[in-house]
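Quick note —
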Amino acid sequence: MKRTATLSALLLIAAACAIANPSTPQVPDNLKPGADEAMLGVVSARGVQIYECRVKSDDATEWAFVAPEAELFVDGKRIGTHYAGPQWESFDGSKVAGVVKARAEAPQAGAIPWLLLATKSVGPEGALARVTSIQRINTQGGSAPAASECTVASVGKRVRIAYTADYVMFGSR
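Predicted structure written out below.
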């Protein structure tokens, strides 16, 4: 049963990565991957962005980003997870860790920024092992609550804000 589920997840990711001439989404120039990278596929995410109310300085407080927590989908089928690091992990065990290279404000109010992340494989061979960069685009929701909701009395409070996004995966040509 587990082997069948892993194989199914691998086939879904492979299918997403094998899309013939996928259309490249319009993104700001600073979020475009290197010329030596090609789009492998698009993975949709649905989950939460976690924030914590923290003391900044002299009793001033702010919402600090803690981590994402999301499920990843291809064609409506769950194929993996996205979590702190940030990391993206396929059900086949392959995973990549990312570092933000560039960001741009989301066109939609209340949405988390669009990003370009450099990635490296941190797991076994599999569907995500070839991914060298990821764009986070088409974000909805996920922004931190209003600053007025983070007070000295609420330091340590965590909130989970729903978000969706598309993660465009790129690999070396």
